[in-house]
Amino acid sequence: MSETNLPPQSDLNAVVSNPFGEHSLFAINRNTFQKTDASSVFRSRYGDSLFKENTFYIIAGTDSGLLYQYVKQQQVPKGSRYLFVELAQVLDRLTILDDPQEDIVITRFEDWFEKASKMDMFDYSIQDRMMLQRSLGVVHGHYNDYAPFWRELKAEFEVFMGKQHVGINARPFTSQQIENLTENQTPAICLTDAFKGKTAVLLAGGPSLDLLMPWVRQHRRDLLVIAVSRISYSLLQAGIQPDICVSVDPHAINLNVSKEMLEFQDGTLLVNEYHLNSNLLSSWGGKKTFTGPRYPWATPLEPTNLPASAGSTVTNNAFSLALLTGVTQLILGGADFCYSQTGYTHASGSAEHALGPRPMHGDKRVTTNNGMMADTHNEFLNSARTINLQAEDAQAMGCRVINPAPGSMRLSHIEYIPLDDIQVEALEKTAR
Protein backbone atom coordinates (compact mmCIF):
# COMPACT_ATOMS: atom_id res chain seq x y z
CA MET A 1 0.00 0.00 0.00
CA SER A 2 2.76 2.41 -0.91
CA GLU A 3 0.57 4.47 -3.28
CA THR A 4 -0.30 6.85 -0.46
CA ASN A 5 1.89 9.91 -0.95
CA LEU A 6 2.89 12.40 1.69
CA PRO A 7 4.54 15.74 0.94
CA PRO A 8 8.20 15.80 1.88
CA GLN A 9 7.56 18.39 4.60
CA SER A 10 4.63 18.50 7.01
CA ASP A 11 3.61 21.16 9.49
CA LEU A 12 1.50 18.53 11.26
CA ASN A 13 4.46 16.36 12.24
CA ALA A 14 7.20 14.17 10.91
CA VAL A 15 6.62 11.52 8.26
CA VAL A 16 7.82 8.02 9.10
CA SER A 17 8.35 5.10 6.72
CA ASN A 18 8.34 1.36 7.31
CA PRO A 19 10.24 -1.48 5.58
CA PHE A 20 7.17 -2.12 3.40
CA GLY A 21 7.38 1.23 1.65
CA GLU A 22 4.44 2.75 3.51
CA HIS A 23 4.43 6.24 4.98
CA SER A 24 2.45 7.68 7.88
CA LEU A 25 2.25 10.81 10.02
CA PHE A 26 4.01 10.16 13.32
CA ALA A 27 1.67 12.53 15.20
CA ILE A 28 -1.28 10.34 14.23
CA ASN A 29 -0.07 6.76 14.04
CA ARG A 30 3.27 6.77 15.92
CA ASN A 31 4.82 3.32 15.37
CA THR A 32 1.61 1.41 14.59
CA PHE A 33 2.87 0.29 11.17
CA GLN A 34 6.61 -0.04 11.85
CA LYS A 35 6.81 -3.79 12.45
CA THR A 36 3.84 -5.00 10.42
CA ASP A 37 2.47 -3.82 7.09
CA ALA A 38 -0.73 -1.78 7.20
CA SER A 39 -2.90 -4.41 5.50
CA SER A 40 -2.03 -6.99 8.15
CA VAL A 41 -2.66 -4.49 10.95
CA PHE A 42 -6.07 -3.57 9.52
CA ARG A 43 -7.08 -7.20 8.92
CA SER A 44 -6.20 -8.02 12.53
CA ARG A 45 -8.11 -5.01 13.86
CA TYR A 46 -11.25 -4.98 11.71
CA GLY A 47 -11.54 -8.47 10.25
CA ASP A 48 -14.63 -8.60 8.04
CA SER A 49 -16.46 -5.87 9.96
CA LEU A 50 -15.53 -3.27 7.32
CA PHE A 51 -16.78 -5.32 4.41
CA LYS A 52 -20.45 -6.13 4.92
CA GLU A 53 -22.82 -5.93 1.97
CA ASN A 54 -25.41 -3.16 1.64
CA THR A 55 -23.81 -1.07 4.38
CA PHE A 56 -22.95 2.63 4.50
CA TYR A 57 -19.68 3.09 6.40
CA ILE A 58 -18.72 6.45 7.85
CA ILE A 59 -15.11 6.19 9.00
CA ALA A 60 -13.51 8.82 11.22
CA GLY A 61 -9.92 9.38 10.13
CA THR A 62 -7.82 7.74 7.41
CA ASP A 63 -4.73 6.56 9.32
CA SER A 64 -2.49 8.85 7.28
CA GLY A 65 -4.30 7.63 4.17
CA LEU A 66 -3.38 3.98 4.75
CA LEU A 67 -6.85 2.86 5.85
CA TYR A 68 -8.37 4.63 2.86
CA GLN A 69 -5.96 2.82 0.52
CA TYR A 70 -6.63 -0.49 2.26
CA VAL A 71 -10.39 -0.23 1.72
CA LYS A 72 -9.87 1.06 -1.80
CA GLN A 73 -7.74 -1.94 -2.75
CA GLN A 74 -10.36 -4.41 -1.56
CA GLN A 75 -13.38 -5.29 -3.63
CA VAL A 76 -16.22 -3.09 -2.41
CA PRO A 77 -19.00 -5.37 -1.10
CA LYS A 78 -22.23 -5.39 -3.07
CA GLY A 79 -24.33 -2.32 -2.33
CA SER A 80 -21.87 -0.81 0.19
CA ARG A 81 -20.42 2.70 0.36
CA TYR A 82 -17.62 4.35 2.32
CA LEU A 83 -17.25 7.93 3.45
CA PHE A 84 -13.98 8.80 5.17
CA VAL A 85 -14.20 11.93 7.32
CA GLU A 86 -10.88 13.56 8.09
CA LEU A 87 -9.53 16.70 9.73
CA ALA A 88 -8.80 19.47 7.23
CA GLN A 89 -5.21 19.91 8.41
CA VAL A 90 -4.55 16.20 7.93
CA LEU A 91 -6.05 16.16 4.43
CA ASP A 92 -3.82 19.10 3.56
CA ARG A 93 -0.81 16.84 4.26
CA LEU A 94 -2.02 13.91 2.17
CA THR A 95 -2.27 13.42 -1.58
CA ILE A 96 -4.66 10.51 -1.65
CA LEU A 97 -7.59 11.98 -3.56
CA ASP A 98 -6.40 10.63 -6.88
CA ASP A 99 -8.72 8.33 -8.81
CA PRO A 100 -11.83 9.07 -6.71
CA GLN A 101 -14.52 6.41 -6.70
CA GLU A 102 -18.27 6.91 -6.44
CA ASP A 103 -18.58 4.45 -3.56
CA ILE A 104 -15.39 5.45 -1.65
CA VAL A 105 -15.19 9.15 -0.84
CA ILE A 106 -13.09 11.32 1.46
CA THR A 107 -14.37 14.59 2.91
CA ARG A 108 -13.58 17.15 5.58
CA PHE A 109 -15.58 17.13 8.79
CA GLU A 110 -17.44 20.31 7.85
CA ASP A 111 -18.83 18.68 4.69
CA TRP A 112 -19.56 15.13 5.86
CA PHE A 113 -23.34 15.43 6.09
CA GLU A 114 -23.69 16.99 2.65
CA LYS A 115 -21.42 14.37 1.09
CA ALA A 116 -23.20 11.52 2.87
CA SER A 117 -26.58 12.81 1.72
CA LYS A 118 -25.41 12.82 -1.90
CA MET A 119 -24.31 9.21 -1.40
CA ASP A 120 -27.90 8.20 -0.46
CA MET A 121 -27.29 8.05 3.30
CA PHE A 122 -31.02 8.44 3.98
CA ASP A 123 -31.86 5.25 2.07
CA TYR A 124 -29.35 3.28 4.16
CA SER A 125 -30.46 4.88 7.43
CA ILE A 126 -34.12 3.88 7.14
CA GLN A 127 -32.93 0.31 6.60
CA ASP A 128 -30.67 0.61 9.66
CA ARG A 129 -27.64 -0.13 7.50
CA MET A 130 -25.38 2.67 8.75
CA MET A 131 -22.11 2.00 10.58
CA LEU A 132 -19.81 4.55 12.23
CA GLN A 133 -16.20 3.37 12.63
CA ARG A 134 -12.96 4.88 13.93
CA SER A 135 -9.58 4.65 12.27
CA LEU A 136 -6.73 3.46 14.47
CA GLY A 137 -5.42 7.00 14.75
CA VAL A 138 -8.73 8.17 16.17
CA VAL A 139 -8.95 5.18 18.50
CA HIS A 140 -5.46 5.75 19.89
CA GLY A 141 -5.95 9.53 20.11
CA HIS A 142 -2.26 10.48 19.94
CA TYR A 143 -3.16 13.58 17.93
CA ASN A 144 -5.03 15.88 20.32
CA ASP A 145 -7.50 17.24 17.76
CA TYR A 146 -8.94 13.78 17.18
CA ALA A 147 -10.76 13.56 20.53
CA PRO A 148 -13.08 16.59 19.98
CA PHE A 149 -13.34 15.69 16.27
CA TRP A 150 -14.61 12.20 17.13
CA ARG A 151 -17.03 13.47 19.77
CA GLU A 152 -18.57 15.99 17.41
CA LEU A 153 -18.87 13.54 14.53
CA LYS A 154 -20.34 10.85 16.77
CA ALA A 155 -22.83 13.32 18.29
CA GLU A 156 -24.00 14.55 14.88
CA PHE A 157 -24.27 11.00 13.58
CA GLU A 158 -26.31 9.89 16.60
CA VAL A 159 -28.65 12.88 16.31
CA PHE A 160 -29.25 12.02 12.66
CA MET A 161 -29.82 8.34 13.35
CA GLY A 162 -32.03 9.16 16.31
CA LYS A 163 -34.34 11.15 14.08
CA GLN A 164 -34.47 8.29 11.58
CA HIS A 165 -35.27 5.78 14.32
CA VAL A 166 -38.19 7.77 15.70
CA GLY A 167 -40.46 6.60 12.94
CA ILE A 168 -38.89 3.14 12.65
CA ASN A 169 -39.09 2.42 16.37
CA ALA A 170 -42.61 3.68 16.99
CA ARG A 171 -44.14 0.27 16.32
CA PRO A 172 -43.07 -1.46 19.60
CA PHE A 173 -44.52 1.45 21.60
CA THR A 174 -47.86 1.34 19.80
CA SER A 175 -47.97 -2.45 19.96
CA GLN A 176 -47.45 -2.46 23.74
CA GLN A 177 -49.96 0.36 24.14
CA ILE A 178 -52.64 -1.77 22.49
CA GLU A 179 -51.71 -4.85 24.50
CA ASN A 180 -51.92 -2.78 27.70
CA LEU A 181 -55.44 -1.48 27.11
CA THR A 182 -56.88 -3.85 29.70
CA GLU A 183 -54.12 -3.08 32.22
CA ASN A 184 -54.06 0.72 31.91
CA GLN A 185 -57.17 1.52 33.92
CA THR A 186 -56.23 4.22 36.45
CA PRO A 187 -54.61 7.44 35.17
CA ALA A 188 -51.68 8.70 37.25
CA ILE A 189 -53.34 12.13 37.40
CA CYS A 190 -55.08 10.78 40.50
CA LEU A 191 -51.81 11.37 42.40
CA THR A 192 -52.04 15.16 41.99
CA ASP A 193 -50.95 16.88 45.26
CA ALA A 194 -51.11 13.57 47.12
CA PHE A 195 -47.95 14.55 49.05
CA LYS A 196 -48.21 18.30 48.96
CA GLY A 197 -45.51 20.06 50.97
CA LYS A 198 -43.53 16.88 51.69
CA THR A 199 -40.07 15.59 50.76
CA ALA A 200 -39.51 12.95 48.09
CA VAL A 201 -36.37 11.11 47.10
CA LEU A 202 -36.02 9.92 43.51
CA LEU A 203 -33.73 6.90 43.19
CA ALA A 204 -32.18 6.13 39.80
CA GLY A 205 -29.40 3.78 38.71
CA GLY A 206 -26.28 5.98 38.67
CA PRO A 207 -23.14 5.33 40.73
CA SER A 208 -24.14 7.72 43.55
CA LEU A 209 -27.10 5.51 44.46
CA ASP A 210 -24.77 3.56 46.78
CA LEU A 211 -23.93 6.79 48.61
CA LEU A 212 -27.56 7.64 49.29
CA MET A 213 -28.88 4.26 50.45
CA PRO A 214 -27.86 4.52 54.15
CA TRP A 215 -29.33 8.04 54.37
CA VAL A 216 -32.61 6.84 52.85
CA ARG A 217 -32.83 4.03 55.40
CA GLN A 218 -32.18 6.50 58.21
CA HIS A 219 -34.94 8.88 57.09
CA ARG A 220 -37.23 6.30 55.51
CA ARG A 221 -40.29 7.08 57.60
CA ASP A 222 -40.33 10.75 56.55
CA LEU A 223 -39.74 10.31 52.83
CA LEU A 224 -41.81 9.56 49.77
CA VAL A 225 -39.50 7.10 48.00
CA ILE A 226 -39.85 6.97 44.21
CA ALA A 227 -37.59 4.46 42.43
CA VAL A 228 -37.02 3.39 38.85
CA SER A 229 -37.77 -0.29 38.36
CA ARG A 230 -34.29 -1.33 37.20
CA ILE A 231 -32.75 -0.69 40.66
CA SER A 232 -35.17 -3.03 42.45
CA TYR A 233 -32.42 -5.58 43.07
CA SER A 234 -30.29 -2.93 44.79
CA LEU A 235 -33.26 -1.83 46.89
CA LEU A 236 -33.93 -5.41 48.00
CA GLN A 237 -30.29 -5.80 49.01
CA ALA A 238 -30.48 -2.54 50.99
CA GLY A 239 -33.77 -3.48 52.68
CA ILE A 240 -35.66 -0.50 51.20
CA GLN A 241 -39.15 -0.85 49.76
CA PRO A 242 -40.17 2.10 47.57
CA ASP A 243 -43.56 3.78 47.84
CA ILE A 244 -43.72 4.19 44.07
CA CYS A 245 -41.91 2.19 41.38
CA VAL A 246 -41.69 3.70 37.88
CA SER A 247 -41.13 1.68 34.70
CA VAL A 248 -41.38 2.67 31.02
CA ASP A 249 -39.37 0.40 28.68
CA PRO A 250 -41.53 -1.46 26.11
CA HIS A 251 -38.87 -4.00 25.20
CA ALA A 252 -38.76 -7.57 26.48
CA ILE A 253 -35.43 -7.08 28.25
CA ASN A 254 -37.19 -4.85 30.79
CA LEU A 255 -38.77 -7.94 32.35
CA ASN A 256 -35.30 -9.33 33.01
CA VAL A 257 -33.69 -6.17 34.41
CA SER A 258 -36.75 -5.20 36.49
CA LYS A 259 -38.09 -8.57 37.64
CA GLU A 260 -37.10 -7.93 41.27
CA MET A 261 -39.73 -5.18 41.46
CA LEU A 262 -42.32 -7.96 41.60
CA GLU A 263 -41.16 -8.51 45.19
CA PHE A 264 -42.70 -5.12 46.05
CA GLN A 265 -46.25 -5.85 44.88
CA ASP A 266 -47.57 -5.74 48.43
CA GLY A 267 -47.39 -2.09 49.45
CA THR A 268 -45.74 -0.39 46.45
CA LEU A 269 -47.61 1.51 43.74
CA LEU A 270 -46.44 0.87 40.17
CA VAL A 271 -46.61 3.88 37.88
CA ASN A 272 -46.03 2.68 34.34
CA GLU A 273 -45.77 4.53 31.06
CA TYR A 274 -48.63 3.52 28.75
CA HIS A 275 -46.23 1.45 26.60
CA LEU A 276 -44.53 -0.57 29.35
CA ASN A 277 -43.62 -4.09 28.29
CA SER A 278 -46.89 -5.98 28.55
CA ASN A 279 -45.32 -9.12 30.08
CA LEU A 280 -43.90 -7.10 32.96
CA LEU A 281 -47.09 -5.10 33.44
CA SER A 282 -49.37 -8.14 33.44
CA SER A 283 -47.07 -9.84 35.97
CA TRP A 284 -47.65 -7.03 38.47
CA GLY A 285 -50.34 -7.99 40.97
CA GLY A 286 -50.30 -4.84 43.09
CA LYS A 287 -51.84 -1.41 42.66
CA LYS A 288 -50.87 0.55 39.58
CA THR A 289 -51.52 3.72 37.59
CA PHE A 290 -50.35 4.74 34.14
CA THR A 291 -49.00 7.88 32.47
CA GLY A 292 -49.58 9.08 28.92
CA PRO A 293 -52.43 8.27 26.54
CA ARG A 294 -54.38 5.09 26.97
CA TYR A 295 -55.35 4.81 23.31
CA PRO A 296 -53.13 5.06 20.20
CA TRP A 297 -55.91 6.90 18.36
CA ALA A 298 -58.00 9.99 19.03
CA THR A 299 -61.15 9.18 20.99
CA PRO A 300 -63.49 10.95 23.43
CA LEU A 301 -62.87 8.01 25.76
CA GLU A 302 -59.30 9.20 26.39
CA PRO A 303 -59.01 10.14 30.09
CA THR A 304 -57.22 13.24 31.36
CA ASN A 305 -53.77 12.18 32.48
CA LEU A 306 -50.16 13.12 33.14
CA PRO A 307 -48.53 13.42 29.68
CA ALA A 308 -46.01 10.88 28.46
CA SER A 309 -42.41 11.23 29.63
CA ALA A 310 -40.86 14.66 29.06
CA GLY A 311 -37.41 13.18 28.41
CA SER A 312 -35.46 10.25 27.10
CA THR A 313 -35.20 8.15 30.27
CA VAL A 314 -37.29 6.71 33.07
CA THR A 315 -35.65 9.22 35.42
CA ASN A 316 -37.29 12.06 33.50
CA ASN A 317 -40.64 10.28 33.83
CA ALA A 318 -40.19 9.75 37.57
CA PHE A 319 -39.25 13.42 38.01
CA SER A 320 -42.50 14.55 36.35
CA LEU A 321 -44.43 12.19 38.60
CA ALA A 322 -42.76 13.57 41.72
CA LEU A 323 -43.79 17.11 40.79
CA LEU A 324 -47.35 15.93 40.20
CA THR A 325 -47.57 14.72 43.80
CA GLY A 326 -46.95 18.28 45.04
CA VAL A 327 -43.74 17.71 47.02
CA THR A 328 -41.79 20.87 47.89
CA GLN A 329 -38.39 19.18 48.23
CA LEU A 330 -37.09 16.59 45.79
CA ILE A 331 -33.78 14.82 46.46
CA LEU A 332 -32.09 12.99 43.60
CA GLY A 333 -30.10 9.81 44.19
CA GLY A 334 -28.28 7.90 41.46
CA ALA A 335 -29.09 10.71 38.99
CA ASP A 336 -25.46 11.38 38.05
CA PHE A 337 -25.60 11.83 34.25
CA CYS A 338 -21.89 11.07 34.07
CA TYR A 339 -19.33 8.37 34.87
CA SER A 340 -17.91 8.08 38.35
CA GLN A 341 -14.25 9.00 38.88
CA THR A 342 -13.45 5.29 38.73
CA GLY A 343 -15.19 4.94 35.36
CA TYR A 344 -18.50 3.31 36.34
CA THR A 345 -21.79 4.35 34.74
CA HIS A 346 -24.19 2.58 37.12
CA ALA A 347 -24.52 1.63 40.77
CA SER A 348 -23.26 -1.64 42.22
CA GLY A 349 -25.62 -4.57 41.76
CA SER A 350 -26.47 -3.60 38.17
CA ALA A 351 -25.47 -5.52 35.06
CA GLU A 352 -23.63 -2.44 33.79
CA HIS A 353 -21.54 -2.21 36.97
CA ALA A 354 -20.68 -5.90 36.75
CA LEU A 355 -19.04 -5.26 33.36
CA GLY A 356 -16.43 -3.11 35.08
CA PRO A 357 -15.33 0.49 34.56
CA ARG A 358 -15.65 2.04 31.12
CA PRO A 359 -12.54 3.23 29.27
CA MET A 360 -12.25 6.95 28.66
CA HIS A 361 -14.29 7.07 25.47
CA GLY A 362 -17.15 9.28 26.61
CA ASP A 363 -18.72 11.76 24.23
CA LYS A 364 -17.94 14.77 26.41
CA ARG A 365 -16.32 15.93 29.64
CA VAL A 366 -18.52 17.71 32.18
CA THR A 367 -18.04 19.44 35.53
CA THR A 368 -19.31 17.67 38.65
CA ASN A 369 -20.77 19.12 41.84
CA ASN A 370 -17.37 18.98 43.54
CA GLY A 371 -15.64 20.79 40.68
CA MET A 372 -13.96 17.79 39.09
CA MET A 373 -14.25 16.65 35.46
CA ALA A 374 -16.02 13.45 34.44
CA ASP A 375 -16.79 11.61 31.20
CA THR A 376 -20.36 11.29 29.99
CA HIS A 377 -22.17 10.19 26.85
CA ASN A 378 -24.91 11.71 24.72
CA GLU A 379 -27.84 9.81 26.22
CA PHE A 380 -26.87 11.03 29.69
CA LEU A 381 -26.45 14.57 28.33
CA ASN A 382 -29.91 14.56 26.74
CA SER A 383 -31.51 13.32 29.95
CA ALA A 384 -29.58 15.89 32.02
CA ARG A 385 -30.73 18.76 29.81
CA THR A 386 -34.34 17.69 30.27
CA ILE A 387 -33.94 17.18 34.01
CA ASN A 388 -32.47 20.67 34.31
CA LEU A 389 -35.49 22.13 32.48
CA GLN A 390 -37.79 20.09 34.72
CA ALA A 391 -35.93 21.44 37.77
CA GLU A 392 -36.43 24.98 36.50
CA ASP A 393 -40.18 24.28 36.26
CA ALA A 394 -40.05 22.77 39.75
CA GLN A 395 -38.52 25.96 41.15
CA ALA A 396 -41.36 27.97 39.62
CA MET A 397 -43.81 25.63 41.35
CA GLY A 398 -42.09 26.10 44.71
CA CYS A 399 -40.24 22.77 44.74
CA ARG A 400 -36.56 22.69 45.72
CA VAL A 401 -34.49 20.13 43.79
CA ILE A 402 -31.32 18.80 45.45
CA ASN A 403 -28.59 16.43 44.33
CA PRO A 404 -26.32 15.54 47.29
CA ALA A 405 -23.82 13.55 45.22
CA PRO A 406 -20.45 15.33 44.78
CA GLY A 407 -19.69 13.29 41.66
CA SER A 408 -22.92 14.10 39.80
CA MET A 409 -23.01 16.48 36.84
CA ARG A 410 -23.39 20.08 37.95
CA LEU A 411 -26.71 21.51 36.68
CA SER A 412 -27.78 25.12 36.99
CA HIS A 413 -31.25 24.53 38.46
CA ILE A 414 -30.33 21.71 40.84
CA GLU A 415 -28.74 22.53 44.20
CA TYR A 416 -25.77 20.60 45.53
CA ILE A 417 -26.23 20.13 49.27
CA PRO A 418 -24.32 17.45 51.23
CA LEU A 419 -26.51 14.80 52.85
CA ASP A 420 -25.71 15.93 56.40
CA ASP A 421 -27.08 19.40 55.63
CA ILE A 422 -30.43 18.31 54.16
CA GLN A 423 -33.43 18.99 56.38
CA VAL A 424 -36.45 16.67 56.15
CA GLU A 425 -39.81 17.52 57.66
CA ALA A 426 -41.40 14.64 59.53
CA LEU A 427 -44.45 13.02 57.98
CA GLU A 428 -47.52 12.60 60.14
CA LYS A 429 -47.83 9.10 58.74
CA THR A 430 -45.73 7.08 56.34
CA ALA A 431 -46.34 7.44 52.60
CA ARG A 432 -47.48 3.83 52.38
Automatic annotation (TrEMBL):
Source organism per UniProt: Candidatus Tenderia electrophaga
Q: What protein am I looking at? A: DUF115 domain-containing protein
Tell me where in this chain the 6-hydroxymethylpterin diphosphokinase MptE-like domain is found: 176-341
The family database entries (InterPro entries) matched by this protein are listed as: MptE-like (IPR002826)
Pfam families in alphabetical order: MptE-like
Per the record, the domain of life is Bacteria
